[in-house]
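Researcher: Structure prediction, please.
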Amino acid sequence: MTKPRLAVRAVILHRNRLLLVNAWPDGQSDLWCAPGGGVEAGSSLPENLRREVQEECGLQIAVGAPCLVNEFHDPNSQFHQVDIYFRAEIIGGTLSEEWRDPAGVVNTRRFVTEAELRSLRFKPDTLPEIAFGAPAWDGRALYDPLEPIVR
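Model: Predicted structure follows.
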């Protein structure tokens, strides 16, 4: 059995809108998620997250506190990923239609309101709660237990 893949993701609110990306080449899926990606050994989680957001969106960010640990897997393979979500804020750059992810993974990025988010297919299920805050949210990181991968 392979080890779980570790990834980091950014919860970026700008003007009360959440930054989302679609990371499915050629429109293979309409599933949206927070920007981020795999962790490279030898760099801290915040360093990895800054690199991923720069690559995927062309933005520079300041990384804040963790707010969610989410894990998912593919029951038909050995794929298992653990995502650690961090609050982050933009400190440089702007979203541009001309920006291209050098890895070719992210093809679309956009800011959405909470209502727009709820009308989209997205993962993880707790994304609206961590992004826009539930009334009882007390600042502790949430945990989404293992769930099957969605395509």
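Model: Strands lie at 5-14, 17-22, 31-32, 36-38, 60-73, 80-92, 108-112, 121-122, 142-148.
Researcher: Thanks, that helps.
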